[in-house]
Amino acid sequence: MLTTRMTVGQALRRVAEDRPRQEALVVGSLRLTYGQLQERMERAAGGLDRLGVGKGDRVALLLPPGAAFILLFFATAERGAVVVPLDPMARSQWVVQAVEQTAPALLVAHSLPPPLVRHALPEGARAWTVDDPALAELLEGPGDVAGPAEVSPGDLLAVLYTSGTTGAPKGTMHTHRSLIAPVVASLKLRELWTHRPTLRQIPRMGRALLRYRERLLRAAGRPQVFLSTVGFHTITGVEVFLQALLMGDTLVVQPHFHPVEALELIQRERVTVLVAVPTALAVMLRVQDLDRYDLSSLLICGTGSAPCPPDLARQVQRRLGCALHIGFGATEVGGGIAATSLGDPDDLQAETVGRPMPGIEVRIVDEAGRPLSAGEVGELVVRGEGVMVGYWGAPDLTARVVDEEGWYHTGDLAVMDGRGYLRIVGRKKDVIIRGGRSIYPEEIERHLTKHPAIREAAVVGVPGGLGGEEVWAFVILEGKEGPTARQVREYCRGALEPYQTPQVVRFVSDFPRSSTGKPQKFRLREMALQEREHGTEDHL
């Protein structure tokens, strides 16, 4: 029943009318049914109306995941206003930049924002904390409004900032339609196990039944229980709560990730779908007494936002006993571009990012924009209803990545096999040129993380002599002891081409990361250049 012809408010109202007594939201001790969630949302929308927040006004949310964020998100959508989710852990300088760009009429934060942030607000704007009496009055007051806001699916709903993996974060503009489109696509993916399978789907359904047996039978055809451990300021976080609530499932929210608490929530709430970034999954698997938790309800572990090493993927499948859905997407596309599925074989779940999501057109193209054949590496370009309107206040930048035909050029290098499964081999900007050959960092990283003593690796190119580049590998070890830099290079020589072998290996305790956990390779490259200036790097 959910379609992209609805607004977010209409979609939530439909679910609330259909199942008012079903549990919708669980955050700590707070438990709300869909009827209660809808009532509270209407009260918050009435409060925004009395505050003078109307169509097109921006409401910035500097909040961790929780009920306040969700209520204000839906209430803002109901008023035709625009949500600006901001990272509550971000540096104040970055928040100042986002506030100056979007000029919100209201900023709601978990704690009092720094003076620089409050000073950046436009004249007349309000800044409230979650425990401010004024906010309580807004959220709990009467739900009546002066008049219904005229909201359409094509109206702007949110300005979502990119993770800043390759530089300064950019504000992507999304409509009701572009944020609902990925939810509709996910509903279609679920048809394999929520509807009677078609003749074409029966073989895949049979494979899934053989692998997941009771877990699949218990979950099939019923509302799911989602556990979200990701920040709501990210496109992943937004899409997770929209999927759970607009599909009519139950959403369990963990405001701040903790591995033991996450395991306890899965056990207590009988979670069927866990959503966590790869680094969080790795931490959960390292909990010493993992086996004592009852995780038998878990059917799907969804991950994304950063690359998931195949070895980690296989550990999730084996130790948690569930399917792994690796989602690949971008803030600019409202989230999902491709994803693995419950019916995919284990190796494809671990080693690919699946096939394109329903409703998404995908091409692999060369430098001239010509489509490439299966098995050829090129840039991934996508088109669909989830593509952003553009970057906030940056039409020239928008024109560089979205062409006249509506194709968004991701900057990711990918290869598609004859069955439509995608593998991401790196970023176009990250390709290393050495001796006239193109080197894709992800191939080296994938090999490095197969080493039992290496937890994570990030490979970058650093300008070298004669206009070429050197391969630098930054490595995080699994424990305190591990191979030497020379041994890492010898390990690479055993399986990689000579030109792919890193010339410099650096061991680090962690990488500089974006808000979604991705290694910021531009900063690693800066670290390498700074080290070279001091002449301390050791070469092969």
Can you offer a commentary on this structure?
The protein has 540 residues and is an alpha/beta fold. Helix content is 35%, strand content 23%. The chain has 3 domains: 143 residues, 3-Layer(aba) Sandwich (Rossmann fold); 188 residues, ANL, N-terminal domain (Rossmann fold), CATH 3.40.50; 103 residues, ANL, C-terminal domain (GMP Synthetase, Chain A, domain 3, 2-Layer Sandwich). The strands form 6 sheets. The protein has a 9-stranded mixed beta sheet, with helices on both faces. A 4-stranded parallel beta sheet has the order 4-3-5-6, with helices on one face. Strand 19 and strand 20 form a beta hairpin. Helix 7 packs across helix 9. The radius of gyration is 23 Å and the shape is globular. The model has no long low-confidence stretch (mean pLDDT 88).
Low-pLDDT segments, ≥5 res: none
Strand order of the largest sheet: 2-1-10-9-11-12-13-14-15
Shape category = globular
Number of strands: 25
Strand count, sense and closure of the main sheet? 9 strands, mixed
CATH fold assignment of the largest domain: Rossmann fold
Please name the fourth-level CATH homologous superfamily of the largest domain. Answer: ANL, N-terminal domain
First and last CA, distance: 60 Å
Class of the largest domain in CATH?
Alpha Beta
Task: Just name the CATH architecture of the largest domain.
Answer: 3-Layer(aba) Sandwich
Helix content estimate: 25-40%
